[in-house]
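note to self — DONT lose this again. spent like an hour looking for the file last time. sequence + predicted structure for the chain T wanted, 435 res
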Amino acid sequence: MDKSTPQNQTGEKLELEIYAQAGGGAGLARAPDGRVVLVDGALAGERALVLVTQVRKDYLAGRCLKVLHASPHRVEPGCKLFGICGGCDLMHLRYEAQLEAKAAWLSHALAKVPGVSPPDLLPSPSPWGYRNRVRLQVGADGVGFFGRKSHKLIPLDNCPVSAPMINRLLPGLAQALSGGKGPRPAWLEILAHDDLAFCTLGFKDKAKLGRANQRNIYLALTDLGAGGVRFSLGSRLGAWPLQKENAVQYLNRPGLGLWAFPGLFCQVNFGVNRLLIETMENQAGPGKDREALDLYCGSGNFTLPLAKAGWRVLGVECVGPARAAADLMADWNGLGPRVTFNTGQVGRALKELNERGRRFDLVVLDPPRAGAKGLMPRIAACGPQKVIYVSCHPAALARDALALAELGYQASGLYAGDMFPHTGHVEAVLIMERA
């Protein structure tokens, strides 16, 4: 940067051209001093009056005060709390343009991975009412999401991206949780599909939650329409009967049914999750008694469809209750003989498999947001011809994919699943094959 160029200051107002779309609802512009400006609320192709809110060595941050020339893709947000609630940040961008932006972000993140081509899009079957699972914050002011870029609670009585059954419960939640003398939960998670919903309430680890408190909360929430209530104290999740009537079914096919249980991880968008399963099945092909390894397998979201397709599958999952649910669903689907589940850390399980010389034709992994750093050599040592990597964090995916490339694998397919419409999140499926 030329030192003779005037420096921009916090509080300054600038007229800027937005040349690209970034994540988090921000547009990218150039300040007069040459630095990149992240402009909150602006869209690519717009000219905007921007208030500089932050000055850093290499970039500026700003807030759009006024759109001087609007993008043709700008739309009226479908929620009265847009810009206030921290849940959605792209609701002002036409849905088709959101998909294009996410595909571009994913391509950019994986640009250095050998063989990567532009992703095939997996749009959400519905961009509204798609969330079958939401986690809400609970405070003195009510029940809702944290505000945009803050920890201020924004109370909700309706959420246009949540499933209808969740919206049936929302208006009465604050009152239902305000009665009694017991401790207040820190968060509330709702799992819902069709006309069924279950609630999980999270309390601080040392909260004194008596049976009377639990009963009062249970009665209040079931009166609202919840089918049941599960309690969690810190990391200790209360018991739950693993039965079909105490779960919501998110996949219903001839010969294969999958259920989600309150308190256990499942994808929030059942429609896009079905597309991910179909993509995985198409890429894996029929098993014909070949062996697959499913890492971070959860309750068997990919394990059981693979087994149904004829694969013999070993699933690895560190959460005991998720493994119990996976075992049970394997039995419900008559797939018990084709699947084995290992409860333990993925890194340790891979080390043991390598030491035993176990080989697999296929490895599927769907790790947490941080990815599977350092585990690619152990995956490659299992000898798979194909690796199917599902990721919610493109940067972590790129890091691990580059490590696989150094081990002789090349990208052969990429998919962008829109798990969270109206947000900057994208779910990627990367296929890598031994070169």
